[in-house]
Design brief:
There is one protein chain. 77% of the residues lie in helices and 0% in strands. The chain is mainly alpha-helical. It has one domain: Ferritin.
Length: 151
Amino acid sequence: MLPLAGMGTKSSIDQLNSFLRGEISAVETYRIALDRLDAGSTSRSELESCLRSHQERVDLLRGQIRALGGDPADGSGPWGVFAKAVEGSAAMLSDKISISALEEGEDHGLKEYRTDLGELDAETARIVSAELLPKQLQTHRTMSTLKRQLS
């Protein structure tokens, strides 16, 4: 059973909402990239897999925030600017540049999870370490591998 929001969980809720906004932005960005991706791109299945992984994290974060008594963020907030920038220029981007931009987003997400883990209460930190961080590492590896293959 997860704790109800209290003194230690308010900062956890705030941090989880920050993670959530980043994950919503990732979902938006992957959707844009997939819409603009060359129809015959060999990268499509990897991008779809990463999109599903980020959507699972959105769902998990929303559930955890509610379990702590908080209200999950509805949108990507400032992180949506990245998705909009990709959307605005995606028509002119090659698969290589799109993959590079997605890999940069994965770098940022990985850094955020690692850096901000200490802002969470112990149980929430355990959940992030056991469930979110491994998925972030996997999507990061996928994009890094694709980037190397396209270089």
